[in-house]
Design brief:
Conserved Hypothetical Protein Ylqf, Chain: A, domain 2, 11 helices, binds guanosine-5'-triphosphate, 6 strands, ribosome biogenesis, GTP-binding, binds magnesium ion
């Protein structure tokens, strides 16, 4: 199944971000720690226009901690400023203020040398739908000012939020891009919840997830679904999970829809365990 989601409001949001960037000092790129590369918008370099950039790996509570470390190192090796965070409980978010100040410092020094007074740092938070932009803003503001939800496409328009006296944050609608470089990116984004569910074939996505878990995290499947021997065939495994969970229809057939939906829900909520859907070692192998 070809996965793609680039509705008109995203094209508009992209234009609006481009407009606003003239007055922005620092760009925060919020990535999903479960799929850092797939959740990275390739248009971001064009959007960020060489502004100082901070990469945040969010939802670290749902991701494999070993891989989160590896991804942070991967981006740091490329010269990026990286912080791993959990916007829901605030873990790591206390470092953001100082990072923005450090990144904006050269600009402030320039102002000072021209005799201008420093003002609040203007920061924009960019990221794909559902990655947690509004949750992060609420966390930094210590109040619920931005709308959040567990569906992609919650924020519809830009909104400035003041954080103390030193920061002004711009919340933006999640933006995807017109064409995924490869379909596996689409599958990862679908699995983590960045694409509108109504557009997805859940069985297809759940099979993709199972195949990956079987290879990389077999114990996650064994523990959660009490399957001791993982069948070689992915569809047979899918069947077995449905059976074990008692998702049977009339005649004893496995209810595929319910099984697929359960696997995805349990992956997204972290019930399955902390799982990362792509590893830096995968790409490094590819480029060597
Ligand atoms: N487990 C976990 N959930 C998070 C975290 N950050 C955000 N969420 C959840 O992710 C969902 C999406 O959060 P939002 O803040 O609305 O995401 P957004 O990026 O603003 O999404 P759009 O406005 O649709 O682009 C919500 O259900 C949040 O509670 C996190 O660090 N960990
Ligand atoms: Mg939002």
């Amino acid at each position: 199944m070809a996965i793609q989601w680039y509705p008109g409001h995203m094209a508009k949001a992209r234009r609006e971000v481009t407009e606003k960037l003239k007055i922005i000092d620092v760009v925060i790129e919020l990535l999903d720690a479960r799929a850092p590369l797939s959740s990275r918008n390739p248009v971001i370099d064009e959007l960020a226009q060489g502004k100082p950039r901070l990469i945040l790996l969010n939802k670290t509570d749902l991701a494999d901690p070993i891989q989160t470390k590896a991804w942070a190192q991967y981006f740091r090796r490329q010269g990026a400023y990286v912080i791993s965070i959990n916007s829901q409980n605030g873990h790591g978010t206390e470092k953001i203020d100082a990072a923005c100040k450090e990144l904006a410092n050269p600009l402030f020094e320039k102002w000072k040398s021209k005799g201008m007074k420093p003002r609040a740092i203007r920061v924009v938070i960019l990221g794909i739908p559902n990655v947690g932009k509004s949750t992060l803003i609420n966390r930094l503001a210590s109040k619920r000012t931005a709308n959040v939800g567990d569906r992609p496409g919650i924020t519809k328009r830009q909104q400035w939020i003041k954080i103390g006296t030193s920061l002004e944050l711009l919340d933006t609608p999640g933006i995807l891009w017109p064409k995924f470089e490869d379909q596996i990116t689409g599958y990862r984004l679908a699995a983590t919840g960045a694409i509108k569910d109504e557009l997805l074939d859940f069985q297809d996505i759940a099979l993709f997830v199972l195949k990956y878990l079987k290879r990389e995290y077999p114990n996650v499947i064994r523990d959660r679904y009490r399957v001791d021997e993982l069948p070689e065939d992915d569809v047979a495994l899918f069947d077995l999970i449905g059976e074990k969970r008692g998702f049977l229809q009339k005649g004893g057939y496995v209810d595929y829809d319910k099984t697929a939906e359960t696997i995805l829900r349990e992956l997204r909520s972290g019930t399955l365990g902390a799982v990362t859907l792509e590893k830096p070692s995968d790409i490094e192998e590819k480029t060597v």
